[in-house]
Amino acid sequence: MVRRSRHDPAETRAGILEAARQLFDTVGYDATTMAAVAAAAGMSTANVYKHFPGKMAVLHALAEGWLCDVEARLVRFDTGRPVRDELRCIVGTLAAAFSEAPSGSPQLIELLSATLFDQPPFVPEFKRRIAARIATVIAAGIERGELAPNDPFDAAEDAMDAVYPLVDPLVFLRRLHLEPDMDVDQRVQRSVDFVVAALKSPLRG
């Protein structure tokens, strides 16, 4: 049974989510009921419904919390460092975090993938923030003269497209499912090197 606080709503919510996560992992999403979540969290079913309108809302909250934890791993980047180093830091950190999807549980990974596929609002927001980070790094590289793309306005979008399979959680989880032995570090290095080389040596018309 998950220990919970009787007074702190945030702790109560966290207890509900942890109880649900354990049940989703052990018995599966379909077999889990809100009553079972309440029992595992040590509270009434009515109290669980005060925090979540239904089981899907619980699952979305788990997925959103996971993405927040992933993003929290990103250190404050230093735009004074070379573009290659900054991009490897961002892309490598995200890819490493995605590859450690909750508990390594196939059931939870499958649930996360299904939830991300539904595109709840927090998913595009996460992608937008990551794209903004990459755009900042690319813009700094152009300003320093480190990069010389044909079109500076499209450079960040081109860079994002190149590393997309490594920074989009749904695409990454699906790829990891197909290639469980994928060499993540090598993929990160090759993708970032491709971006930097392309933006350093633009095609001349």
From TrEMBL:
Molecular-function GO terms, alphabetical: DNA-binding transcription factor activity; transcription cis-regulatory region binding
Residue ranges constituting the HTH tetR-type domain according to the UniProt record: 10-70
DNA-binding residues: 33-52
UniProt superkingdom: Bacteria
Keywords: DNA-binding, Transcription, Transcription regulation
PANTHER family linked: HTH-TYPE TRANSCRIPTIONAL REGULATOR RUTR, TRANSCRIPTIONAL REGULATORY PROTEIN
The protein, known as: TetR family transcriptional regulator
Source organism of this protein record: Oharaeibacter diazotrophicus
